[in-house]
């Protein structure tokens, strides 16, 4: 099926770049024609001799025959996807006040989520240097700790903190994800550079530089996700974190536009994470450090290119060996819009509950139903069943009615569990997910969870994908054991949605304050929140000075 395929012809407007070696095409041709000459026959056999039956059974020439029929590429042109990203990062001027103000809120919220994760030993055990006791001169600092690390390991640490509780921002499209995950790489590099610059007598980077990089990373990850579903081919969305972080830290590190193209190409060719660890029966905690891993890989790749490594010009479109043919079923990426500030301006905040975002409106509806039951003198014990009218992505990701809840990762990605906890306790908190929690051990929560079912509403799915709406709707209908059917409670957009942004702002800031409170004295928490509310002062604060405010001995 690969014969004659020229996937690269599907990508229009390819540009060339001097960064890639001009010997690329020639070397590719030599490798292609040499395939048969390198076929691994044992020395004692000629090509005309018959292999023993056992050896023949385990030997296949399929790949070699296939390769021989593929014309070697002679193009030095670069995939337009790569050059578009690099051009955006190096040339686009961000002048959107809304984008910067939203980035400020995302920045504070994300750091707060990282601090909250420090209360969980399953997270903290993964943090620190690879070799215990290592202190890197001018190294980046890790909030909530006294670690001083190289930027690669620092990116893993900060990225893991940020994502651990699944409580930072969210972007929902053909592919979902959490663009603020990129802060793991951005902050590690910016802090390390700032400390290094100061040691050399140069000015540090400012927090506004971090926010600019965040806006760009959000845009790259979000636009690549709008029309392209990586989960449908089994890939985890952190591939987009790796690509976006690589692009923006390349600029922070002083790479040229062409070097950024090369670095981004390396991110696409790097082995991509599978979604296996996000789905039953293999759900486990890697989903909480996958973004940290992606951030660290991104920083590493950018630094490798900074040292002079080149790139892979048709890493996406190369027939057979490119990303499209190997991992994307031969389909090139589609784009809804050019890169700008759209994603940051429309990103979703997880304000109310530490719950996978497709369940946020369902949990909000469940809270209203709890109040209704209470007013009737009833409780979750009186519920016979619950039907959730929802959208397709919710069904595919977190509909786990009959699957066992064996760990934290199972529970925070099960809509039935989250709704059941709210109906039983009128709450949903991070402490409701661990094995030893009251909710996890409750027979009522488990019994009710198994009586909550999901039904897809095609209109809800359409609204979810509509660029003008981008809602995450859920509607709950509760039937009581006496046969009473309560009126359906529907919620289209969660509190963190763009249409409810002003309503959410004070709640976002209170969430940030709440996450800082267990770690710092009250006056220090006030200093951080006051600085976070003063945009002008925050933007002009040195990155290293700001990060030092989060250090704990």
UniProtKB/TrEMBL annotation:
Gene Ontology MF: a single term: 2-methylcitrate dehydratase activity
NCBIfam families: PRK09425.1, prpD
Origin organism lineage: Eukaryota, Fungi, Dikarya, Ascomycota, Pezizomycotina
Gene Ontology cellular component annotations, sorted alphabetically: mitochondrion
Domain called MmgE/PrpD C-terminal: residue spans: 353-526
GO annotation (BP), single: propionate metabolic process, methylcitrate cycle
InterPro entries: 2Me_IsoCit_deHydtase_PrpD (IPR012705), MmgE/PrpD_sf (IPR036148), MmgE/PrpD_sf_1 (IPR042183), MmgE/PrpD_sf_2 (IPR042188), MmgE_PrpD (IPR005656), MmgE_PrpD_C (IPR045337), MmgE_PrpD_N (IPR045336)
Pfam families assigned to the protein according to its UniProt record, in alphabetical order: MmgE_PrpD_C (PF19305), MmgE_PrpD_N (PF03972)
MmgE/PrpD N-terminal domain mapped to chain residues: 84-336
Species, as recorded: Dactylellina haptotyla (strain CBS 200.50) (Nematode-trapping fungus)
Subunit structure: Monomer.
UniProt record similarity statement: Belongs to the PrpD family.
Annotated protein name in UniProt: 2-methylcitrate dehydratase
Keyword line: Lyase
